Amino acid sequence: MNIRKLAEGLYIAPQLTQADAADAAALGIRSVICNRPDGEADNQPDFNQVRQWLADAGITNTAHQPVTAPAINGQDAARFQALISQAEKPVLAYCRTGTRSALLWAYHQVQNGLPAAQAVAAVKQAGVDLSSFEPRLQAAATNGLPDK
């Protein structure tokens, strides 16, 4: 199991497997957000398959918000935060490695006053290195993210 706590009520993970779905249910996860596009890799289960695994494990609150890290914009960050806000907690967000999900969280945090270095440090505690994104996070804190 590679499910890591990022913040109160929010966990992140790399691509989920059937075993991970059961582990998430055992942790008490109530909602799952997938930030990985279907078909990104040949050996990747599509979101409908993961959704079925989650449902079989008792988790039926799911959302698919596929993004790619270089193209994340203000609408993506706002939608991610809205999904988390509206979801039954705790929430698990996942992508290929957990980086995109953590980055979406970090963008929202810096736009609400958390210094970029602190956002990067918080994410690092959850096992994800966003140091290469720190300049973009700093820019987002100052100027916001482009809407598209």
What does this protein structure show overall?
It is a single chain. By secondary structure, this protein is an alpha/beta fold. The chain has one domain (4-143): Protein tyrosine phosphatase superfamily (Protein-Tyrosine Phosphatase, Chain A), CATH 3.90.190.10. The chain has 6 helices and 5 strands; from the N terminus they run ββαβαβαβααα. It has helices spanning 18-27, 47-56, 74-86, 99-111, 116-125, 134-143, and strands spanning 4-7, 10-13, 31-34, 61-64, 91-94. It has a 5-stranded mixed sheet with strand order 1-2-5-3-4, with helices on both faces. α1 (18-27) crosses α2 (47-56) and α4 packs antiparallel against α5 (116-125). The radius of gyration is 14 Å and the shape is globular. The N and C termini lie far apart (35 Å). 37% of the residues are buried. The model has no long low-confidence stretch (mean pLDDT 96).
Describe what is shown at a glance.
With 148 residues, this protein is of the alpha/beta class. It contains six helices and five strands; from the N terminus they run ββαβαβαβααα. The longest helix is centred in the middle third of the chain and has 13 residues.
Order of neighbouring strands in the sheet with most strands:
1-2-5-3-4
Strand content: 5-15%
Helical percent range?
Answer: 40-55%
Mean pLDDT: 96
Return the CATH architecture. Alpha-Beta Complex
The secondary structure category is: alpha/beta
What is the helix/strand order?
EEHEHEHEHHH
**Tally of extended strands?**
5
The number of distinct structural domains comes to 1
Q: Low-confidence stretches at least 5 residues in length (pLDDT < 50)?
A: none
Q: What general form does the structure show?
A: globular
CATH topology heading: Protein-Tyrosine Phosphatase, Chain A
Radius of gyration: 14 Å
CATH top level is Alpha Beta
**Gap from first CA to last CA:** 35 Å
Report the major sheet.
5 strands, mixed
